[in-house]
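pasting for the record
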Amino acid sequence: MYVDDLATAALDVKELDWFEDRLQSRFVTKPMGEISMILGIKVIKDRAKRTVELNQEIYLDKVLNKFRIPNPVSNVKNVSTLIDGYNDLRPASDQDKKVDAIWYREDLAEHHALALKRLMRYLRFTISFAISFGPLRDLVVYSDADYDGDKDSKKSISAAIGLIRGGLVFFGSRKQTFVATAITKAEYAAICYTAKQGQWVA
């Protein structure tokens, strides 16, 4: 059932019926039956395997068609040229800003456009990929740190991912606010960042 894109679920059908009755007594609702789509996310359930899969194939297809990104060819070849490195995509330095004040740099726009085009091609190729939730452990988190990852500031990068029932529910990376003098310090900062994210989810 959907009420402003609301999905309801319960372990006991009686509890679900009670909740829906209370909802319908106060609001005008329209029961839509078993969920198959919500907020542009396709929901695929397999009761035999006790899994639920979520993907955005329909939404992504609309976006990619809007920008005329074609379907991938069947015989995919390895990319012979690598995407431009950080130096071409990095934020503008003070020197760049000085140059920009007197000269228009069209090359930055080209680099970013090529990076975006490659991202969209990746989305087209992986459009049917889904996040799968199954009968596994509850919350599992992983952390990592890229020591001295930012070459400009010498700061490390914290990274975190979290899974519930085997499905990814959060991921992220953040530049640390200090310059770590040892790998251990960078890793501890990453663990702290991951623990905060995990606590919010739990």
